Queue: 3 jobs
Job 1
Amino acid sequence: MMKTIEVEDAARAADLSAIASATESSTLFTRREMLGLVGMAGLTALTSTAVGAVQQTQQRRPRIACLVSFWGAPGSHADWIIDKLMDGYWWKGAHTPSQVDVVSVYINQLDTSLLGQKVCKSKNIPIFKTVSEAVTLGGKELAVDGVVIVAEHGNYPTNIKGQWMLPRWWIYQQVIRVFEQSKRSVPIFNDKHLSYSWDEARWMYDKSRELGFPLTGGSSIPTYFRKPEIELAIDTPIKNSIVVGDTADEGALFHCVDVLQAFVDRRKNGETGIKSVQCIRGTETWKWVERNSWASNLLEAVRTNFALKPGYFQEGRSPNVCIVDYNDGTKAAVLSGSGVGWTYAGEIAGQKDPTIVSMLGWPGPFSQYHASNAHSHWLIEMMVSKKEPFNAERLLLSTGIVSYNMDSCWDNGLYSEVGRRIETPFMNMKYHSTHGPLFETGQRPPNTPYLRGFES
């Protein structure tokens, strides 16, 4: 990987006048380019300058390019996440300053992203017209230290299967093109699932391994406050698991699936990959639960844990279940259910009662901002440390489970509430989760919004 150093160059800086106010006054040049600019007589002085510049570069705050689909108020993920990168966030009972600098923004649906325009103007952050310009800062090579992709909202179509066709892969592949042309790469954060398409998601993951950059993202819920405040130990002998939560659409389902994977990949001998995925909807959901005693026992344990009346979950609207079989014989299911936040229940060998862990209680009208505090914390930590907070394979498997769940009830354009069981030998990802607890602890955030650089 070719090192870069910073030198003053007034002529080229003039070409970047549109971003001069938001970036450093220097421009990036490779050592080879610099040698072409000076004679051998100045080589000693140049080398001395270069060493000092490299040391300064190593100590500076990571510069982040934020690439988003839509940035509006009050409910877009771009607002919830990027605000924290600029203004800091609540973590372990206290406000924590950000350790990164947002230096460029790209907004796919710019005309309707009035809040994004207002925030960037107030913060003196340039909005570029293309993805490439945002990550090169208007130049020819990669010029940032990290990339944040938040493509969760906006006016985009939904296909017949109910998959929201958000431009995550479209943005990501343009970043990869710059990485390859620049012959270097930087960490990427991708909010929620990688793509609605397994093939696109696998390509995204494979590129991170091929080019050697850290990749993270996923749901904010696995890192939200837990009750009780526990993380499953590494190599916990999990037999079967369920997650109960909102599964009204693809996006909501992903939150539940990512919660499932965050617990299940702690099982003995680690993750072994997914054998099959199936979706069942409507009244057949409860017939499946009755036929599978492990699932009905775990669901009953959740009901009694919350002191809910018998049959409570069966009275809910739009019942559905996402059934996951793993290569090592472990079984799991995600069931629709309200009133319990996002709750994991696991049958563990040697334990009489299931282990139940819930993520609940968003605070006040600004809950959407504070719900992703830990998400932003680990995003920033990755940008600083260049290390993934958890295995990127988890994000890929969560993406694949959701994709094939949405596909299960459709066959040659025909819909069935009892979806087909889809064999997934290509989802054979194996890894051993060894990270420590990632979830929020301490005092809950205050009932106030984040600063955006203006009063309202």
Job 2
Amino acid sequence: MDSRTKRRLSPAELDALARRALGAGVAGHTELTDGYANAVWRLRLDDGREVVCKLSPPPELEQLSYERNLLRMEASAYELAAGAGVPVARLLRAGFDDPVLGGDYLMLGALDGVSWNDVKPTGEDELRRELGRLLARFNAVTGEVFGYPHAGITGSTWREAFLAMVGALLGDTERYPTPLPEPPARIRAVLEAASPALDEVTTPHLVHFDIWPGNVFLDLTGVPRIQAIIDHERAFWGDPLAEFVTPTIFGELREDDPLLTGYREVTPLELTPAARVRLDLYRAYLYLILLVENGPRQYPESEYARVRDQAFTSLGDVLDRLVRLAPGAVG
């Protein structure tokens, strides 16, 4: 999707960046447009390598609070996920505060598979089950602090960090007025009242929080399998249960979901009443992101309207449910 946050570089600028980063020039380039925030190109280098170049937004463009230094978190996540046995693209070079670019970039080895978003493979239930197993490995990585360390939004407990994350996002609505189903203060109150359920989470786990078909690459040369999970820029340290929100966006997590089956093959996960409250808290947070992020990005109305309308309605539904079901929720 087109976005104001996507930086534009000329072929000469791409060539110069590739030479600084990888020591080879660009023989050909194609912009990859599936993403929502960062500009991404597939580059064919003059030494024969195929790489993907990912750029942070222009430094003069304000972003949401949690989006500060997104590519730095993504670079860390690639290395941590690979160490945990999760298939990811190979991180070739991470450049931070590049003096010529005036921002951050990543150079990744290009994948030869296909985006799950572009195909309808056979055996999708088995692929979803495999994805569950891989996400369990991803979530097994633990850290020292909850939240977004690279953005400075953290907490010593998961409840503290999550409420700081919500507070930062609602605070962004002061800079970017956003139509919401309830006033920001009301949303904050509902989520805070339900937040005691978060105290069950005592260890920071790595959470991708952007698992949708466009971020999963498949190898279709034989029996379909997952080649790699990509785009870790929205990752944070928190509750592994949050991982199930994006793959079930605008819906519910069912006990018979193959994603959950695969996850449980690696580690136990029980959907207790408190866990259901936590899932709704994370759904509310995701829907808020989808609504507020249009402020700095300014998506084309024709492309964004459906997502915006679904997020608006779904956020209202989740808030209503939290008021009814969460212990201590406001009336």
Job 3
Amino acid sequence: MTDAEQRSLARLEVRERGLRRGAVLVRENEPTGELFILKRGMMMSYVLLDDGSRQILRFLFPGDMLGVSGLVYRRSPETVVALTDSAVCPFDRSEMTGIVTMHPRLAAIIMAVNQMERVALTDRLAALGRTSAKGRVAALLLEIRNRMRALDKGIVDTFTLGLTQEEIGDATGLTAVHVNRMLRQIEDDGLIAREAGRVTFLNEGALAQAANYTDRFSGIDLSWLPEAR
């Protein structure tokens, strides 16, 4: 990015707000006029279904832009909550006006990232109806590890999952008991090892095959982006 583009992004992170684990940042159906950059920690977004159950939509990592739906809707279509002690940088949605006007390439990049996230979400939701429980859990393990690896190049095969079995279940459409069985099965198959909350991939190829997994954060083509102003 150009210096001007970097300065424009930096202005979005001038303020910082701390959140404790379990704190709600944005609540479904409540008015929202702010967007956020996740600076530290891990968060998630979810919706509540008619039967009172929770469907987790995305797990969020540092650098992610939160509450983007606030650009379109006056009321949030999802709840965003902290999974760990976290820090976010809030900014008014009017800040996006300047980015779109002065830095159209940067606005295009934000749109592209949003589409990558949408496709990854579509894959996971489609998997609820077309893959096995084992495949859903395996795909989520790969998704979380790949997001963490993008932030820390040192993460290759071993990482701290940082999710409860209930949270994994709410993301994959399974009960916590079923998640526990699937994790044990994946481990018994020699695909992963678990110890003290850490997961180690032992056979990533077989894990990806079991998950029918496609890494939507690779193979990206941004050759269409306009020149920087």
